[in-house]
Amino acid sequence: MADTQTLTPRDAFEMLMAGNQRFVAGSPEHPNQDAARRTEVVPAQNPFAVLFGCSDSRLAAEIIFDRGLGDLFVVRTAGHVAGSEVLGSIEYGVGVLGAPLVVVLGHDACGAVAATRSAVADGAAAGGYVRDVIERVTPSVLAARAAGHTEDADFIAEHIRHTVDLLLDRSRVLAQAVEAGRAAVVGLSYRLADGTARLVTARGLEVAADAVS
């Protein structure tokens, strides 16, 4: 794998999506998963992407993107809600480790989004710290409702876009890296049934107009 210092954000994005295509096709290569790679990454890590995704057990990042040890710097929370610890972790991945790509990974049938939609609709409050997750997803759900959306996919996409915007609004380190062309932030929506990761939004990455919904 190329050193992250030589990878552009687009290079990193294409590497990630190529891995997803292999996974979908049922022909994974399982790169960087052997003993030699284990030894290689002992001194230091140079991930080519920071992946901030939902904690859902069906979204194992290295599997669905067909990558291995040292490739992805992974941060996961339920509903990919972002607090200060998440922001610090992402900033570490970009600012210290030099990853040129940040990915926000959402998915269909997301329990956090579904629970938030129910809470907004009927006012039912969740217990414990689950309430905090729902509160953080609520702005996305309200925005989707205000736009007249009713389909699950539209709510998921809105939450992914909202998370990308939040990361860039709250993290000066990340925003400056994107502005300087050192990094890009993309939002992907994963389909559980077929394993595809679809581009929802991109910041700092030139893509065809019809590639982003």
UniProtKB/TrEMBL annotation:
The keyword Zinc applies. The keyword Zinc applies. It comes from the Bacteria. PROSITE patterns: PROK_CO2_ANHYDRASE_1. Keywords: Lyase, Zinc. InterPro entries: Carbonic_anhydrase, Carbonic_anhydrase_CS, Carbonic_anhydrase_sf. SMART domains: Pro_CA (SM00947). Catalyzes the reversible hydration of carbon dioxide to form bicarbonate. Belongs to the beta-class carbonic anhydrase family. This is carbonic anhydrase. It comes from Streptomyces peucetius.
